Each structure stands twice: as structure tokens, then as C-alpha cells.
Amino acid sequence: MFRDLYITFKEFLRTFGAMQLFFLRLLSNSPSIFVKRFNLVVHQVHNAGALSLVIIMVCGLFVGGVLGLQGHANLSKFNAEDSVGTFAAFSLIKELGPVITALLFAGRAGTALASEIGLMKATDQLAAMEMMAINPLRRVLVPRFLGGVIAMPLLVAVFTVIGLFGAHLVAVSLLGVDAGAFWQQMRSTLEMGDLYEGIVKSIVFGIVASLYAVWEGYNAIPTAEGVGRATTRTVVLTAIAVLILDFMITAVSI
Amino acid sequence: MADTSEQIIEVRDVDYSRGRLEIFKGLNIDIRRGDVTAVMGPSGTGKTTLLRLITRQLVPDRGRILIDGVDIGKLNLKELYRLRRRFGVLFQNGALLTDFSVFENVAFPLREHTKLPNRLIRHVVLTKLHAVGLRGAADMMPQQLSGGMARRVALARAMVMDPDILIYDEPFVGLDPISMGVIVRLVRKMNDALGITSILVSHDVQEIASVADCSYLISNGKVAASGSPTELKNTQSKLVQQFMHGMADGPVAFHFAAPDYEEQLLGRDVEQ
Description:
The complex is a heterodimer of chains A (254) and B (272).
Chain A: H1 2-36, H2 38-75, H3 84-122, H4 125-131, H5 136-174, H6 179-189, H7 192-218, H8 224-253
Chain B: E1 7-18, E2 21-32, E3 36-40, H1 47-54, E4 62-67, E5 70-71, H2 77-84, E6 87-90, H3 102-113, H4 118-131, H5 147-158, E7 165-169, H6 177-194, E8 197-201, H7 205-211, E9 214-219, E10 222-227, H8 229-234, H9 238-245, H10 261-265, H11 268-271
Parallel strand pairs in B: 3-8, 3-9, 6-7, 7-8
Antiparallel strand pairs in B: 1-2, 1-4, 4-5, 9-10
Helix pairs in contact in B: 3-4, 3-5, 4-5, 6-7
């Protein structure tokens, strides 16, 4: 049993190390691709971002609505239902915005990326590129990675704004909280630091989600089953990593 | 540079194994400039592996592979990519980029490697597509093509950068007789018209006989026989005879190693 544990641990370290190296290679190629092949990056921002937009907006609206309901129901016990705006803003900006967006992004864009790259590998498209003296890392992986990294903070912003709108819709329009109190309390309690926390999280999660998607796709076993497994792993690993990192970033910033 | 020498590719004493499975043991192959050279062998002898070694997608365990006298094992990534521009490779399934049209697939290497104006790219791509008879399919997507058409598009793409060496991996598999004939003629025509060197991996003996200048028969990790197709046909070696005439009995066993047939059917091997 100890031997099994030892082997598993060694395998884990090896994968972890390989992933770090892969990440460094992506990073070192990123600036030149960003400058020289900006059109490829823009295309991937559209691919990862615009295609996740609908699901992000729908989910944002309903998450905001639930915050409005829950906030109103629970805060009214303390006669503090006017603070529902603050409550929703803090939850959305610091936690729910980045975390839920990252999870949805992994489900929508991450899986698409992983399976696309995995299938390109399975059908020899990546090998064909290599043989045309085109580095697939630079032509295929880096633009997709950068696209995800850029798209994520934008999606988080959209999610948060729509979420606040949803909270406003429920709390003010339906439950009769005063609109002035809703916005004014939010403005007076929310600080730039809170906003930075959300921004930092969205950037970190963007990197993590895109890295896992690209890595899993690129290292998929080139069979139907292998690509399927890579897509599943993308979602599972991204979810775990995002929640652990969320805890760590929150612990550091409080 | 030994550009004028007769050999363009020299494979010297190459060993290669995948895991514990030994694929090549002391393999030696010479490929003459300007020839169509065929590499044949029973399935599983590592023909595709040989192509991957020559293009350094794989690295041999031992031995050297020289291209124009340069050991490709010693090249760094930049030099390797420069070398690869001299290759055109036709993959078994075409390996077309599925999110681009036929036209963009053929234009892809030009767009990546050159800064040619669009008009010129269009011109070059259309002439290459015309050569494989698919100018009319320029706007189609790879998914709409039949297997034979996809391979012809891939051929147009492989030659769009005017390579010195064209490599075909199993170009005849799964083609109808018409497409097969077209591809066979194309291989020969392009080799002679463009003055390139072609390497063909296949086990279609008849087609190879009609197109190749020289063939190598690989078996058990070594070259079992080599020479022109007629020379091979007249060789007395049992293995060559078996392969060239497609006989089930001979040095190459048709059956994969298995327990005794009768014992297994009667279930005696389980009881023991």
C-alpha cells in the first residue's frame, strides 16, 4: 500500500511539474503572440467570451434575484432590509461573481476548448501543423489561453452587473425596498479594496480555467474516450482549483 | 552542404523501441534524390514510425538520421522548423484543419510563413487545387469532402510551399479505384515535374510496383529486402515472396501468438 501511495505521489509530482513547465511555456510565448497575432487572440476572446455570454447573463440575473430574496428575508429580521443592496454587492463582487463565472466558464468554454484541442490532436491536425513547421503551442494553444484569460474578467464584470440588476429587480421593484437606500448604502460601504479583491480573483480564475482547459486538451489521449475524459477532467479540476484558490485569496485579503 | 550528393536521406543503424516493444534494430535506409522510394512491410512493422523518425516527431534510441548530410538529432527547435519547411507530409487521414475551408487549408502554410499579398496567395492556392482537380471545391468545408477528396486537398496543402521532399503515409488506403489511379499518377507526375523526392509508405504492392523507383521491405525491425519492384518480385527470399504475392503461409505468421486452438475451444486451458 505504501508503495502504491509512493507511486501515486510521484506521479502527481511529475504531472504537477510538467504542468508548471507547460504554464511557463505558455507565458513565455504570450507577449509575442499578443503583439504579432492579435487577431487570433481577439478571435479566441470572442470564442470563449461571447459564446459564454448568454449563460453568464441568465445565471447572473437569477443569482442576483436569489440574493435579493434571501437578503430581504433574512435582513428584515434585524430591520435592516435597506442593506440588501450592500449585501448583494459584497456577495457578488467579492465571491459569487468570480466563483460562479469561473465554474460556468469551465462548463461552457473550458470543455469546448479541451475537446477542440483534444480532437485536433486525435485527428493529427496538431502533428500536421508541426510538419508544416508551425508550432501548435504558438498557433493553437497560446491564443486560446490568452482568449480565456482576457474573457474571464469581462465575463465576471457582466455577471456582477447583471446580478446587481437582478437583486435590484427583486428587492426594489418586487419587495419594495427603497431604491435610494439600496444604492446609497452600497456606495458608502463598498471600498476600492473590495473591488480589487474581485478583480484579482477573476484574473486568477481566468488563468486557472484556461490553463486547465488547454492542458487537458493538449494532453488528452487521442481517442474518443480520451477526449471525453479530458473534457470531464477540465470541469472537475477547474472547479476544485477555483474553490481552493478562492479560499486562499480570501484568507490573504481579509 | 552536400547538396549534390545522390542520397538526400540516410538512416544509419537506427534502434527504436516503444516501451518494451522493439520496433527497429539496426535499420539502414538510403533515399536517393529525385526518386520515388517506397517503404513496405506487413502491418505493425513501424512504417509510420519510420516517417515520424525521419521528420523527427520521434527521436531514435540509437543511430543517426542524416538529411543532406546533416544529423537531424542535433538540430535545435528553430533549425528543425526550418528543415521541416522542406518537407510536405500527407497524413493517412488528410489531417485537414476542420474549422477552415478547403481554400484556407491550402493557404494556411502560406499565410503562416509568408507575407505574400492575398492576390498572390489566391493564385498559388488555386493552381495547387487545380493540380489535384479540386479547384471547384475551394469553398467547401473538410467535413463535406469524401475520404479521397480530403486526401487530395491534403496533397495540395503538402505541396503548396514547394517542398523538396514529399512524404505520403498510406496514400492508397480506402480509396476507390478511380481516386487510387489518380493519386498514383499524381505521385509520379509531381515527383518528375517538380523535381522533388517522394517517400511512400504503403503495403499496396501493385500500386507501388507501378510508381516506385526503389522499394524497401521492412520486417522484424530491419530491411528484409530492397531494390526496384521487379527486382523484389524476382527475389528468392521466402519473406519477400510471401509479401509480394500476398500468401497467408510463410515466414510472417498470419495468426498472432495464441494458445492451442483445440485446447482453447474445448476449454481445457481454463480448467488447468
